[in-house]
Amino acid sequence: MKKAKTTFWKGKKVLVTGGAGFIGSHLVKRLVLDGAKVQVIDNLWRGSLDNLVAADGCNVIDLERDFHKADLIKYDKCLELIRDVDYVYHLADVVGGVQFAFNNEAFVFRQNILINTNVLSACVANSIANYIYVGTACSYPKHLQMAPGIVSLRESQTYPAEPESSYGWSKLMGEYEAGLVQASGNINIGLLRLHNAYGPGMIYENDNAQVLPSLIRKAIQYPKEPFIVWGSGSQYRDFLYIDDIVEGLLLVAERGMNAGVIQVGSGKATTIKDAAEMIIKISGKPIGATFDTGKPEGDRGRIAVCDRARDILGWQSTVDIETGLRRTYNWVHERIMSHDKKR
Fold first, then answer.
1. Smallest Cα–Cα separation from 115: which of 34, 45, 55, 27?
2. Structural domains present in the chain
3. Which residues contact 72 (CB under 8 A, 6 or more apart)?
4. DSSP state letters, 147-177
5. CB-based contact 211:278 (threshold 8 Å)
6. pLDDT digit string (tens) for 208-221?
7. pTM score of the predicted model
8. Distance between terminal CA atoms of the chain?
């Protein structure tokens, strides 16, 4: 894989929406390391200022000057804050675990539509040169994600559109609107579509947590917390470690502007059952998994064909699922143990 140039960002001004969240905070830390001047907008609904603390205990940005707690559904706030930067990375959205997504479909759709259109409109109004939007593989058609066997998807298979959830629809509309605005020629657009992100920094504490951090928490807490897997476990995902995602985000700015949608994934299928077994092995505990088929499990699955990421960005995933799970497990374990000591 071609690494992003560390000199590319030196002195550049970058704004990251959702920059106190899981993916956003990792991106912010890397941009700062590479010499960028970074601002963050986040309403802290799922994000946390703790995510913007470096390993040495210092904040990676000046929170008083460069952090803005704001709700992006308010267009006037977007106009006020999204200005005078070279790049906007738009990662802010309303998302959660599968149960939250399907129990709050109208809310999720409306919030994300407003957030996406407000941020992009503010970029245009304030003459931002470069806008990078982060989409999701949940935007692929339902019938493809429910097909038997292992389904490998290319970006060209997005339409005719039929996402399974309102979340997938809202994120797809963000891509679509960005394409419309790009056609005006007044702004450069980068579109990176992610498969299932995971790694240190994910929310793991409650039922809004996504599947891997939720299972890791259950393994660490076992037997105090039962190790229950939602669904049959036969559903599969293309899990992509956070370091690979950040590299893809940086490379889009360097090599992928105005190139259309580029997806990134590992290209490998991991069933939830297999992920659970890997987590149990890492824990070293004699855990017997229970599968609750009464709980939602989402689509059957899909994996990425990453030809465009390879050809345009020079990108490929480098962290295998076993390595990534162990790193994530160790991170969650450290925080749970630290929290227990403070009680």
1. 45
2. 13-200+238-268+302-318 (3.40.50.720)
3. 17, 41, 43, 78, 92, 114, 115, 118, 119
4. SSSPPEE-GGG--S---SSHHHHHHHHHHHH
5. no
6. 688 999 999 999 99
7. 0.95
8. 45
